[in-house]
Structures are given as C-alpha cells and as structure tokens.
Specification:
This protein has about 280 residues and is α/β, with parallel strands linked by helices. The protein has 10 helices and 12 strands. The radius of gyration is 22 Å and the shape is globular. It starts with a strand and ends in a 6-residue tail after the last helix. The structure holds adenosine-5'-diphosphate and magnesium ion (MG). The site of magnesium ion has 5 residues, from α1.
Amino acid sequence: MITLDTLTKRFGSLTAVDALSLAIEPGEVFGLLGPNGAGKSTTIAMTVGLLRPDSGTVSVGGGDPADAQVRALLGVAPQALAIYDELSARENIQFFGSLYGLSGKDRARRADELLELVGLTDRAADRVKGFSGGMKRRVNLACALVHDPKAVLLDEPTAGVDPQSRHAIFEIVRTLRDQGRTIVYTTHYMEEAQKLCARVGIIDKGRLLAMDTVDALIAQHGGQSVVRIERGETQERVQTAEPLAVLQKALAAGDATGVHVERPDLETVFLNLTGRSLRD
Ligand SMILES: Nc1ncnc2c1ncn2[C@@H]1O[C@H](COP(=O)(O)OP(=O)(O)O)[C@@H](O)[C@H]1O
Ligand SMILES: [Mg+2]
C-alpha cells in the first residue's frame, strides 16, 4: 500500500531521515516507534506529499503522492493539530469535507458518522476551543477520515491525551483496522506499539534499526527474561531464555514464597539496539 525507498531528508547539516526503506501492506497496522527527534513526523510528511524528500521515493498504491488522486488515498492526522479552535467539532469535519469536494449532503452525513466514531456526537456543536487535549485529538482524527481514505497516518495520536481518551483512540484505531484500512501509527510509547501494531519499525536518528512483528523483534533483540524467586527474605535473580523451565524448577523445589518473571519488551529491544532508553 505504501512503499518508501531509501527516503532521505536533510535540514541543513542534520539528516532527519536517512535512507529509510519500508513497505506497508494493505490492511495492516504498522507502528513507527522511536524517541522524539527520530524522524517520524518528517517521514509522515514525505509520505503524504507535504515535504519533498532530498532523495528516495514514496509510492502509494503504486502512484506518486505528488498526484492529488493518489494523495486522496491517504488521510493524515498530524502531530501538530490541524483543526480550527473557533469552529465547532462538526464545522471542522465539514470544512475538511469541503476541501475534498464533498457535496453539502455528503459532508453532513460523513460528519454524523465520524462524530459517532470518535465519540463526540453530543459535543458536535461546541467550539473546539473549549475541548480537552483528548477531544481535540479525536476531532483531528475525524478530519483525517472525512474523504474515506484507504490508508490513515496517525502521527502521535495520543500526545497530550488523558488515559480515558487514550483508550478511546485505541478503540478507534481498532475500528479503522476492522474496516480494512491501512494504518501507520507513530509513537514514542512502546506500550502503544506493542498493543496496537501488527508490525513495528524502530527508528532512531532517521534510521530504521529493525522492523518486524513485536514478538519477532523481542525474540531477536530482546535478550533474556529475568526470573526472580523469593524465598522468605532472600531473593534469587536468574537470567534465562527459558523462564518457564526455571519457574517449574523453582516451584518443584517447594521452598519458593514468590515468583516473578520479567520478559523483555520493546523498551529492552530499543535499549539493546541503541544503548539508550526509549523513554524521554
Ligand atoms: N522544518 C525543520 N527544520 C529543521 N529541522 C527540522 C525540521 N523538522 C524537523 N527537524 C528536525 O529533524 C529531526 C526529526 O524531527 P521529526 O521528524 O519531527 O522527529 P519525530 O517526529 O520523530 O519527533 C529533529 O532533529 C528535528 O529537530
Ligand atoms: Mg513527531
């Protein structure tokens, strides 16, 4: 659905995106995971044709996103909110509908559907100005969907969002996936990538370090699990690739008063790949 081939973007002496290549399959939820400044937003901007790469190519459904018809396959919810504070939730959605040439009737119908999807039907007529961060994110998301795009690019869709709205956004992403849309989801939260994404690309300093399913990334780059076995006041830590076998042995011995398994996660993967933590 979306193919990036050795995409590169420089800002002066800084290489923000460095020969990035990846292929996103139709209908998959693909996560682009990396710390702040990794090059995620720059990659999204080039993918949707907002920013010209210095070199490399983007292909969307086999076409060039510089072409408006190809670009219409994509919906983007930018990290920097692209909505109008002075307009209501409904007016924002309808405004974006008009940009895509939807008729008045279609705009109204689509606004109803999208307000329902993002859970803002009862706030439709209220100005966005008074909305919480999470509600604004949801309006931003609805605006990205107004023209019924095949692929949706969500750039840090949970930035500045309270836990309840975060959960609502996860549910919306799952609904979009079930509708068969391709989703590109950028985040610096490894739990989000781990929860939502079928495949994840890990990006740092503009470079793609690894790309695979979450399980495969952890299996390949996560290293070993740690089993902690408590015996009264003392505690043993065992590093192992076979945590279940260690657990069974500890339990069979009969003297354990507590056991705990720490499995490697995407945070561990990032740490092992870069020597740094993903957390800010
Ligand atoms: N318009 C710009 N001019 C100069 N530097 C930029 C510009 N946009 C992004 N950058 C720099 O490029 C790098 C990647 O930024 P960005 O793509 O926004 O990363 P991310 O979205 O992963 O946080 C950062 O170092 C950022 O400061
Ligand atoms: Mg960004």
